[in-house]
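[Primary structure, fold]
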Amino acid sequence: MSNTAYRLTVFCGRAVLGNWFNLAGFAVIMLNAIVLGLETYDPIVEAAGPLLKAIEYACVVCFVLELLVRFGAAPSRFFRDGWNLFDLAIVVAPLLPGVRENVTLLRLLRLARIVRTFRLFPSLRVILVGIRRSLPGLGSFLLITVLLLYGYAILGWMMFGEAYPERYGTVGQAMLSLFLLLSLDAITDTLDAGREVTEWAVLYYVSYVVAACYLLTNLLVGLVLTALQEAHEAERSAVKGPARPEPSVHEQLASLRSIIEDLERRLPAGEARVPAQPEVNLTRIE
C-alpha cells in the first residue's frame, strides 16, 4: 500500500469513527425524508418542484460519498457488512433499467433510506436487533393467538351466529370481530348486545378480555423485553470485545509461584528469608 493510499485509509477510518459523520448522515436522511413528504403536496410541487429535485440529487450525492468513505475506511471488510450492502442496494437500485422508470419503486427505495438511521446510532441498532431476536418467539405467540381466536370464534358463532350474522355468521367473521376487540374498542356496547341474546355473554366476553387482551399482551411484552435485553448485552459485548475465560486453579497457582520466586530473587543478599515450606504437589490439586 502506497503512502497516499495509507493516509486516505486512515482519514476515512477517522471520519467513520467520528460523531460528526453519523450526525451528518442522519441530517441528510432526515432532509431526504422531508423532501419525500413535501412531494405529496401538489401545490408545493408546482411551486418548488425543481428545488425539491435538486435537493434529492444532492442527497443521493451525499449517500454515495458516505459509501465511498466507508469503503475507503475498510475495503476488505466493506462487503461483509450487511448494512453496507443494504446502503449500496438502495443507492444503486434506482439507476438500474426497469426501476428508474417505475415511480412507485423509486419512492419505495427513497422511503427505505430512512431505515439507514438504525445503523448510525447504537441505541437504534439495539432495537432493530431486539426485534429480529424476538421473531422466533413471535411465531409461537402468533400461533397461540390464532388458536385462542379460533376457539372463541367457534363459541361466538354458536352463541351469536343467528342474532348477529354480520359479525358471527362464519368463523372467519367471528375471528375478525374478536381481533378488532383486542383494542377493547366498543367492548361495552358489544357486551350489552351479547346480553340481549344470552346471559352467558358476560362470561364469554370477560374470559376473552382476560385471556386475549391481558395475558397475551403481557406475554408479547415479555418476549420483546427479553429480546431487547439480549440485544443490549450482545451490543455491549461487541463494544468491549470477547470476555477472557477465567484461569484454572493450576494456572493461578503457577502464576502465584512465579510471583513468589520473583520476590525471593529481589531480596538483598544475607537478608533472612522465610523458611522453606514443604513443596506441595500441584498436580494432585483439583
